[in-house]
């Protein structure tokens, strides 16, 4: 990045008014990842660096976010402000949907979630990608974008405020830092020009809400989203290592608990009981899958002895499209034992889950196949971390649980908590009466 276009005024890449920790932006590296807490100067520093580098070398620079419905959601306004601050108004021309330099440098903008094969291909000649608010970036988006940016010397830059310990971008770059990456954590202490306006609010949060302060200002990740219904329980589950690889016991039946859906996700929890321990050994979730699809997927699991399939109350209702209830459909698909979970008020169900949590173990492995987007208990753990209540702006008070992509697994686990003590390991006696030894119990730390 050193060939200055003829007859153009070059801008020296000196990090004047740059947080010192961002000096690495001017050194070549495949991945550059400044991350951390609020008011660290990352975003405006990256914008300045790109404008300076682009003024010295003709580049195609792609600026993106996971979700960008309009240019108002993009970093264009930030770039425009920094063009003015750097005195580059005569060099850069801000257009309706792009920013271009006199030497041919071009900034273009996109949302990652809407990328298709044709659009991705058009970005093969990009020199630098900058993904802002990368904490929301999905593994799918990364796997589409990264191999597309293949020009020699091309780079991918990611800026983000830390959120969840399970966010893809955090796991990929911070937990398992690649060799070809600069990964630098920054907080307001690393920004000599931090905002004086925010100081009092920062100090108040530190005094009144230290957990929130730790995430927002110190940049330390959360175990669960702010306001998560099961925040304490999921933290305890992780800290006490009850989330771990959980192979199934071939000597015990596997029971399933379903949350039914079509447009919404169909969710199925796979459970075994060992003494009082509740072992979630797998989890299936996908939309637009028939009951036959789900049963076929279950039948691919070799060595499983199936116990009872537990369906929510609507599993007994006749569907107008088939003239049968889901319970009848599953029995027609040769699922031998199908029962209906009694109707339980959501709040009572949440309390039942909390009571079950101390004896709950969840497989934390993850694998994928063609039929279901998510398999393994890792997805269920993510649902529990992100299950939260709605907070109306009018009252500011937590309300009913939010119905979103994470609620289906949590609806299923409410069903599990409702019937957990009815689960048997032999069809003719409750688990409390089983006399045979359970050799794995000692290994669970109980």
List keywords for this structure.
446 residues, alpha/beta, 9-stranded mixed beta sheet, 7-stranded mixed beta sheet, 16 strands, 18% strand, elongated, disordered N terminus
The description of the largest β-sheet is: 9 strands, mixed
- Radius of gyration equals 26 Å
The count of DSSP E runs of length 2 or more, i.e. the number of strands, is: 16
User: Taking all residues together, what is the mean pLDDT?
Assistant: 86
Query: Which percent range describes the beta-strand content?
Result: 15-25%
Structural class: alpha/beta
Helicity range: 25-40%
- Unreliable stretches, pLDDT < 50, 5 or more residues? 1-10, 427-446
What is the H/E order? EHEHEEEHEHEEHEHHHEEEHEHEHEEHH
Query: What overall geometry do the principal axes of the alpha carbons give?
Result: elongated
Tally the helices. Answer: 13
Distance between the termini: 60 Å
